[in-house]
Structures are given as structure tokens and as C-alpha cells.
Specification:
The protein is an alpha+beta fold. Helices cover about 35% and strands about 15% of the residues. The protein contains 16 helices and 13 strands.
């Protein structure tokens, strides 16, 4: 329904506006750590120095971004293309979709939800987290002891290296809290209150042990961290192994249908980090932004990129799309996007890679036909122009809607719309009808993730993002099993744990 895409509509163009458009003793702990150091090849002196360097070189606190213009990632850096537009209605010549859709052969035989989930959270990841968590705990406690800062009543006197079994128990409690029996606070799993009492977590580990593991949780070796401002710095270093793993596994495990969506998602976060953004149209307005590629029909997250500031060599929109769509070019997919991405240059770049593009577009984007952009229309009227495979359509409803498409002509279709007096007929361009239908993939996946948030407060930005991505994999697992079991069985996202 075009009436519901207000966020993607260009505002009415007036003449004035056109002018402005341009529990063990510490001695035993010490002994345990020496054994760990020998087993994993740690040098406690080097580790401590590297840990101190990491602490000193962490990103400085900076204000969050507040302007969507900054978030657009230098759209105008795209090289301008000279177009010759014709005022004719083109015959659409979209690329034909040539792939099969559904779960890949690799996971086709996995009938249990937990089997599908284990693709995104494999044993190798659990082992990595165990290793890096112990490494981090080792360096922290050694540092505290050498500085004589380990207080007599500190919980770290009772710390012992975490093992694989405990890591599985830890993430079982996390999963239980997020999708099975959510509670206001994760500590409530150990509560004796009759209204919220549960024995699940207490049978796996004590609350203090859970909190200790959560505090020391790590995915990467701080010794390898490169300070901000230096060459090869990675703002997402803390969770880089998990990001790379998910993006690899989501691509390998599922083949999407013809229509794809690229849009923005948000991981809520109100702490201080230099790439925190403000997005007024999101339910959670402050947080860390993700660029997400998803399957339109299911909401399955195919690939994502976390916005971490302008630290890429190429920050253009075309480069962003190349990173997200690399595995899906030359297959005839149609990519739906909103006006902050769409441009003639981008759609032509997609066309060169056998990929169709459709999206609303900002009226002052370079390369658009000026006659179409400036033409004044009455409600229900449409004007258009074409250039090669591109068609630019302007349609007037309650306001002007400006679109670019490779997959459509400028034809219109009669549809029924709701009104106070009942259903009324209305003519809409086919491009707008398809856009409204196919633009919801990311929103659908985002909505499912929001149903099961991780409620524990944490000042660590990377833990917020880690558990957000953890829930993305849970939702992907649910979608994968749903697709595999169609049409005979209806599953529940909670079955992943069973």
C-alpha cells in the first residue's frame, strides 16, 4: 500500500523547495593459570603488558551520530553517469531469475531445530569462546594481583578456568532466557520468588558462576588489537570472529528467492561508542546500525554489515552493495531498496552484474531526468522517462512518489484501497505495487528478533551486538526449519531449544 510507505516517499515539491534542492584459594588459581599458560603458550608478562596496552588504547568516548546524512556513507562519491532520458514507456527487460530457493543441500537433512542452530553456533565457536574467555580472565586476574588490587572479598578468588561443558550450559541459559521463558532480568532465573521461580538455570550453574563467566566472556585475543587511527584498525575486532562466521554460514545454508531486500536494522544501545547512531524512524532510536540483506518472503538474514564509521577504503553505496550481494550477483535477483540508497548509478551497476534494482529515490539525486522530477502532477497522475534498462516514474498520490526500476514498465494497475466508505478502486504504477509487497524482508526479520531481546544490562557495546546477532541466528534457524518442513508442519521458535 503506497499509503504506508511514507518514510520512503519524497516530500511534495514546491517551487521554493526546488530552489533549495541543490571457589578455590588464589594459590590454586595461580597454579591453574600457569598450567593454562603452558598448555596454550601464554607468556603472562607479555599478556599483561598487551592487556594494559589494550586498555590504554581503547577507543575514546565520542558523541553519537545524529544526522542521517552522515549515515548515508558518501552517496555522492559515486561517479556521475551521463544519461539520455526518453519520454517513452519502455518494455521491461529484467534479468530472469535462474536459481533454486530454499535450504541448501548441506542442511537439507537436519530435521531438529537445534541441529540447524548448530550450523551458526558450531563446536569450533564454543571452543574459541572458551579459550579467549580463559585467556582474558588469566590476564585480568594476573594484572590485579601484580598491582595488589585483588581485594580480599573479590569474587575472582573463586574463579577457575571455564570448560566446554560450562560454556554449553552458559549459552543454554542465555537461549532459555531469550526465547523460551523470557524474564525481566536474567538473575530472576535463580530467584526464590514463587511467581517467577525456575529450576532450569540453577541446575546448570550457580548465579555467581554465570555472572563471572559473563564478565570475562571474550571472543578475540586483545593482544592482537590495533589501536584506532592506525593502519588495519578494526572497530569490530572484539566480535570479528563471530561476524565472519555468521556471514559465511548464512550464505551457505540458504538459497533465497528472486526478490531480496537491503535495508537498515538497529541493535539498541545507549552507551558511548563512536559509531553509535540516532535514527528517528526506528522503534529503538539509539544504537548500532546494521546494513542487512534479507530474503523478502521469509525475512531470513542472508548477510549483514555493521556500520562502524567511515573506516573503509571505499565508503560508497556501490561498494556496500558489492559486499552484501557478492554471492548473489549474476543470478537474476531483484533487489528492493529505499530512497537513501537508490540512484541511477547504483541501478546501472547492478544491471551490469545481471541483477535488477527497484527503489524509491530522492528527487535531487544526480542523473535523474529533470523534466520528470519537475513536472507538477494532480492526484492519480503519472509521468515517466526511460534510459536503457532504467525507467524513472513519478506518481502523485497524497504526495509525490519518485521511483527507479529496471524490472518494470510505466504501466498502471487497478487495485482496491480502503476508505471510510469502504473499498475504492485506484490506479497505481506496477512498480509501486511490487515495491510495497517486496520491501518488508528486513522489517520482518527485525521484528522477529525484537520479540526475544536479551534483557541483561551491559555497558559493553560488543556484548550487546554479540547477543543481538545470537538472536538473529536463532530466528534464521527457525525460518530454515519452517521452510524445510513446509507444508506439513508448523514449528515454534522455542523448539530450537528442545
Amino acid at each position: 500500500m503506497v499509503d504506508n510507505i511514507d518514510n520512503d516517499l519524497t516530500v511534495p515539491i514546491t517551487d521554493n523547495r526546488r530552489q533549495n534542492m541543490n571457589e578455590v584459594p588464589i594459590e590454586n588459581v595461580e597454579s591453574n593459570y600457569k598450567n593454562i599458560a603452558v598448555e596454550w603458550g601464554f607468556d603472562d608478562t607479555i599478556d599483561e603488558i598487551q592487556h594494559e596496552n589494550f586498555i590504554q588504547n581503547r577507543d575514546n568516548n565520542e558523541p553519537f551520530l545524529t544526522n542521517r546524512e552522515v549515515e548515508r556513507r558518501s552517496i555522492e562519491s559515486i561517479a556521475p553517469v551521463i544519461f539520455e532520458w526518453e519520454r517513452v514507456n519502455p518494455e521491461p527487460q529484467p534479468y530472469v531469475f535462474t536459481s533454486m530457493s530454499g535450504v541448501s543441500d548441506e542442511v537439507l537433512g537436519k530435521s531438529a531445530e537445534i541441529e540447524f542452530f548448530s550450523i551458526f553456533f558450531p563446536d569450533s565457536l564454543i571452543k574459541l569462546i572458551k579459550k579467549e574467555t580463559n585467556r582474558y580472565a588469566y590476564s585480568i586476574i594476573r594484572s590485579l594481583r601484580r598491582k595488589n588490587m585483588l581485594k580480599q572479598n573479590s569474587i575472582w578468588h573463586k574463579w577457575k578456568p571455564v570448560n566446554i561443558s560450562e560454556m554449553y550450559s552458559f549459552f543454554s541459559i542465555i537461549l532459555h532466557n531469550m526465547s523460551i521463558i523470557p524474564k525481566p532480568h536474567i538473575k530472576d532465573f535463580w530467584s526464590n520468588n514463587a511467581f517467577i521461580h525456575s529450576t532450569f538455570a540453577s541446575k546448570l550453574m550457580t548465579r555467581d558462576r554465570f555472572s563471572s563467566i559473563f564478565s570475562m566472556l571474550h571472543l578475540n585475543n586483545n593482544a592482537n588489537y590495533i589501536s584506532r587511527g592506525k593502519e588495519n584498525h578494526d572497530s569490530l575486532f572484539k566480535i570479528r570472529p563471530y561476524i565472519d562466521l555468521i556471514n559465511k554460514k548464512t550464505v551457505e545454508s540458504y538459497q533465497p528467492g528472486q526478490n531480496l531486500t537491503i535495508d537498515e536494522g538497529m541493535c539498541p544501545f545507549r552507551g558511548r561508542i563512536h559509531f553509535r547512531v540516532y535514527m528517528k524512524n526506528k522503534p529503538h532510536k539509539y544504537g548500532m546500525k546494521l546494513y542487512i540483506l534479507s530474503d523478502h518472503l521469509t525475512g531470513y538474514t542472508l548477510k549483514f554489515k555493521i556500520y562502524s564509521g567511515k573506516n573503509q577504503k571505499d565508503n560508497s553505496i556501490i561498494a556496500l552493495f558489492d559486499r552484501l550481494l557478492e554471492e548473489y550477483y549474476y543470478k537474476g535477483h531483484t533487489v528492493y531498496m529505499d530512497r537513501f540508497y537508490t540512484s541511477p548509478a547504483l541501478l546501472n551497476a547492478l544491471w551490469e552484474k545481471n541483477t535488477n534494482g527497484v527503489g524509491t529515490v530522492i528527487s535531487n539525486r544526480k542523473g535523474l531526468p529533470k523534466e520528470v522530477v519537475k513536472e507538477k502532477l494532480q492526484k492519480g497522475e503519472m509521468t515517466y522517462a526511460k534510459q536503457g534498462p532504467l525507467v524513472c516514474i513519478k506518481w502523485r498520490d497524497t504526495r509525490d512518489v519518485l521511483m527507479l526500476s529496471i524490472a518494470h514498465s510505466a504501466d498502471m494497475k487497478q487495485v482496491s484501497v480502503r476508505s471510510k466508505t469502504g473499498e475504492l478502486p485506484k490506479f497505481k504504477p506496477n512498480a509501486i505495487i511490487d515495491y510495497n509487497i517486496n520491501k518488508t524482508g528486513v522489517d520482518h526479520g527485525d521484528q522477529m528478533v525484537s520479540y526475544y531481546p536479551f534483557q541483561r544490562k551491559s555497558l559493553k557495546w560488543w556484548k550487546k551486538m554479540f547477543f543481538h546477532l545470537f538472536m538473529v541466528t536463532v530466528v534464521n534457524s527457525y525460518i530454515g526449519i519452517e521452510e524445510q518442513s513446509k507444508p506439513t508442519q508448523k514449528n515454534d521458535i522455542k523448539d530450537i531449544y528442545n
